[in-house]
Amino acid sequence: MNSKPLTKPGRNEACPCGSGRKYKHCCAQPTAAPAGETGLQQLLETARYHAYQRRDFAAAEQCYRQVLELKPNHAEALAGVGQGLCWRHRLAEGKRYLARAAKALLRQADKTDGRVLLGFAEQMQIWGDMDLALQLARAAAKAMPDNASAHYGVAVCLQRLHQTNAAIAALEKVLKLVPHDAGSHILLAILEFDNKHYDAARQRLERVVAAETDTRQLARACLELSKVYDKQKRYAEAFAMFAKAGALQRQLPENLELDAAYIFKKIALFKQGYSDDLLKRWTPEQLADGLPAPVFLIGFLRSGTTLTEQVLAAHPQVLTSDENHLLEELSAELAAMAGISDDTPAALARIGIAQARQLRAYYWQRVAEEFGPEALRKRFVNKVALNSIETGLISCLFPDAKILFALRDPRDVCLSCAMQSFAASPATVNLLSWQGVAEQYAAVMDLWLSLRDRIAPAWLELRYEDVVNDFEASFRRVFELLGVDWRPEVERFHERTAGRYVATPSFAAVSQPLYNSALARWRPYRQNFAELMPQLARFVAAFGYDEADL
User: Can you tell me the distance from the alpha carbon of 265 to that of 259, in angstroms, rounded to the nearest whole number?
Assistant: First the structure.
């Protein structure tokens, strides 16, 4: 998941600790704990100081744990421990603490500052518990009926839970309080779009684009308006709008500070560093540690990985992950073990087979911690689209793995990426320009083509178009790769998804039955693709798409 750290509150705002006092009179002025004193209030003030003044979340977590020894159901302490764990990628354990904190707050909602309820609702959104986030937001709206932010929080949760009409009702309350709020109008337009009220969505977004001066909100409005224009077959206007949105997003501080060359340098290092010998350094028989064979679902962004994951998750013998940091953590463990950072191939070449077994055990330990012991009994599928650049690491440490690589027409991938909002990161900053999307796609897919016929794991490329045109035949091949039987109920995957939170940008699409309207979406933009074809033509041909359109 992509999220932001806690924001330091204003001096006159309610203190995030839940005390009900202003921040300047609470955590902004902690007192040092006297030697040996372990009183509850002293520990809380020290924890708040570490969290909000020093940004030292590990130290804050330690203090909060001491509070829990004295008062096990203390909401602030539970939340503090949960936040610390989540920021260290211990999401399963962290979310359990956060859920306990949320329930503790809800039990005393009538006595809790509404701003505290709302702030914690926003944190639960960040960590993906939309049901509890919705309960907290509703409690905040009840406590602060004239607070537009509280009703907006309710609307966001309802939208992510696919409760469109209820979300619209919540936004109508917001707009009665703040009639010209751009963010609320943008979200309402998104919901109108989902309800197929395209003219209403277009008119609303055009008004925002004409009046808005805030760069972030203007970028959002332009991007959403591009989708409406696309749906209404106003393709030239759609292209102009998503190009403008990307240009505006590139001006945002979080994107300006990113190294756009980072992912290209990493790919170049991997392409050069993974020799045939390193890719097949150990056989499954040599490793022989009795651990399960992992499955990795990878590909480029917007290629159908979320759809595939939701179908797999509908199978009773399969357990899937959403986006996670497991391979990122494994790489960090490898770097520490080898004493080599920022060069995974060199680190792999330095370690021995005993250390390789330790790393494999570490991976499955983390899987069990995050997804429960059931992950070791079922076929566990690790789904992170851009783990595709980690194919070499997978091959070296997991020669027994199965790799499922999601494919889609390269032109549709690029168009979909250009029309999608992503959280700022080195892996997405290039997707903010038309040329940048094609360059990153070409780099990632070139790496895959250079490795796929040399790696140890068995692999299968699954084309999105084949899934849409012949679902059963496509997924019979997938389940054969995974070693599980075909189950007809997977065709009803969308029933399982409806009303549930899905973390990726595809959350709305995967709650519906399969549809073919996303096939060959690029064709009306043929003229705009002329400048990208030098990068894309090779991959159109390599993956079996229609070369007559080149």
Answer: 10
